[in-house]
DNA sequence: AATGAATGAGACTTCATTCAT
DNA sequence: GATGAATGAAGTCTCATTCAT
């Protein structure tokens, strides 16, 4: 792992653990075993660093989602694959979720970063369009459906991160969302 | 409006407009036409003040939701009333949403505040239980359903706050969620 | 002496002694027996503080020079009074000269400050004009004459601040400059 | 131009353009097309580099002034040659003046550098002595006369660098100074 | 000899909190 | 109770200098 990646990793961990507030750049430097100046060699500012983490996660997410797509699979099944993949991605990388949940609504993430992040769900958009053409998915504004699905992902992930002991099944969740959006 | 409320209001407006970071207590004092010391007479610290806003909103939300409940109304209709009421509450009070969206996942909101906030949705919990007894609502863990519904509210509100021009109907959204949770 | 003046005085002394470079705001605070924050209550930034010193000196200089003017005095005598007064002013306040000599050409002093400083020599300008009308002073561009006289003041002050032991008389200097500018 | 000279030139340009504060060594390295380390091979520190520029300019000035001297020329004419030469030197090399004006009074220039700089005006000193012997120049302390002349040079150069449109003639200035110092 | 990534001390500035009035 | 000037710890960021390559 090169220095830039080490910094990103250290920053991610501290930001999730303590929040942006409580994570001075000096702490990141310490955790990454570098001088503070080194961080500023790679990232113009703390905000740029945070955006870089955001984009990196989104790009990793995109790779995962892009691998899901297959032309011939029926819409419902494909949807389930997508849904499972996202959930699985953030479940395997709990720290990514911790970061996203905290930063999503923050003014620190620039529109540019968000635009890049949007690319990750290209496949889902195509899926929705196809589903609507086949009258399998409700004829509702794409953006609204995406927001809805995204919201459900977020809330589900929050739920499974809750420290209660109930049995948490992904099947239920997928069914909830599919029933919601299906025609 | 008494002094305490004036402070809460001023703080709310500034926090939403500028974010927590960019809202010094001095600015709140100025906007509330008080001295900084006065704020500290009412609230131990800035964090306590922010939690007080959180709790105040949640209590107002609770009042609105409590008024919705009527014994005799069928589950589906009652659900729609609840859903419409929450959305309407935060649509009428956009600033409340701005605050909640920003603070929800923040480590500043204490577990105590969150526990109090939980009271607001008592009615919804009862509704879900009843719906499940009547086999109208899916037999899924209450907490999961609540989280799901809450997430949908959040994502819908975010969507209608987006500056796009598409036609934003609450009916679609209510249907999405109902279809999701209904048996 | 109030707090603001204490700060200005402390800053002046440190700036002259160590240079701008080597004078952190923290040192000024320490010398002025205040917290650093207090300095920023009175002056937006270090640069603003430095400009405030500049302006304060120039205003004090103006007071001294304004007191010199008397309608009826002949040009040559008045000139000598002016010249003696400026030199005397900066000789009594060596520290002022140390400051001015260091900062005069610095980009830190804003055009606004310089414009204010310009007021200090109003009287001299009038004197030059009168002298030229009476054909006592050479018919050379006002600005050039002013610059010349100012330069001579600066260089004389530098000379008398030099740690050599030669006998330093103001009379010579005044004669030099008068001979230069007289018709 | 060898590497050392390239560095000096780049540094000079940046220092004049941006000021000392705003000229990091890294910027100098970039402009000189070298690594930062290379600069430190030639100059112990940034301050040493700045002093080297000072000395280099002074040495160039010395060459110019030394060329002026001719045994047989009368004092007044020789003075005018000297004066014209200095002004011309700094007018042709405006950047030198920018540097000197900014650095002259700075604590960065060491007494050693200043002593070397003093050599540049050897000829002028001889001239003054001769003028005084011949009772052509006022019998005033050499140092004072030198300082006076130097000050007038500085102020004249500042004046001609001012962005006003008045007609700027060197003749006036030379006359001013000559009238000042002549018996 | 040349390089420039790495370093970290230290600069400026902000702001939550206190306390004398 | 109300006030807001004073405080100084702590934050972000810069940059002169070093040293392994």
- Oligomeric status of the shown chains? homotetramer
Class by alpha and beta content of chain A: mainly alpha
Greatest contact pair? C-D, 40 and 40 residues
N-end to C-end Cα span of chain A: 47 Å
- Determine the mean pLDDT of chain A: 92
Q: In DSSP terms, counting alpha (H) and pi (I) runs of 4 or more, how many helices of chain A? A: 10
Q: Report low-confidence residues of chain A grouped into runs of 5 or more.
A: none
Mind describing the biggest β-sheet of chain A? Answer: none
- The number of E-state strands of chain A comes to 0
| Shape field of chain A | elongated
**Helical content class of chain A:** over 70%
Following the backbone from N to C, one meets helices and strands of chain A in this order, namely: HHHHHHHHHH
Strand content of chain A: under 5%
Query: What Rg of chain A is obtained from the alpha carbons, in whole angstroms?
Result: 18 Å
Could you explain the architecture of this structure?
4 copies of one chain form a homotetramer. Chain A has 183 residues and is mostly helical. Chain A contains 10 helices and no strands. The model of chain A has no long low-confidence stretch (mean pLDDT 92). Chains in contact: A-B, C-D. The interface between C and D is large, with 40 and 40 residues. Chain A binds a DNA duplex (21 and 21 nucleotides) through residues 3, 24-26, 29, 34-38, 40-41, 45-46.
């Amino acid at each position: 792992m090169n220095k830039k990646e080490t910094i990103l990793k250290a920053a991610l961990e501290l930001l999730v653990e303590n929040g942006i507030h409580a994570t001075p750049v000096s702490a990141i430097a310490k955790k990454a075993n570098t001088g503070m100046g080194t961080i500023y060699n790679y990232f113009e500012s703390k905000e740029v660093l945070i955006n870089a983490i955001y984009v990196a996660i989104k790009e990793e997410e995109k790779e995962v989602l892009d691998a899901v797509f297959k032309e011939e699979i029926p819409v419902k099944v494909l949807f389930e694959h997508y849904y499972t993949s996202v959930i699985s991605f953030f479940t395997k990388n709990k720290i990514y979720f911790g970061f996203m949940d905290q930063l999503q609504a923050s003014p620190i993430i620039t529109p540019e970063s968000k635009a890049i992040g949007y690319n990750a769900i290209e496949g889902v958009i195509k899926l929705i369009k196809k589903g609507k053409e086949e009258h399998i998915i409700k004829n509702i504004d794409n953006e609204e459906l995406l927001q809805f699905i995204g919201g459900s992902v977020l809330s589900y992930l929050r739920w499974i991160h809750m420290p209660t002991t109930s049995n948490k099944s992904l099947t239920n969740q997928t069914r909830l969302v599919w029933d919601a959006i299906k025609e």
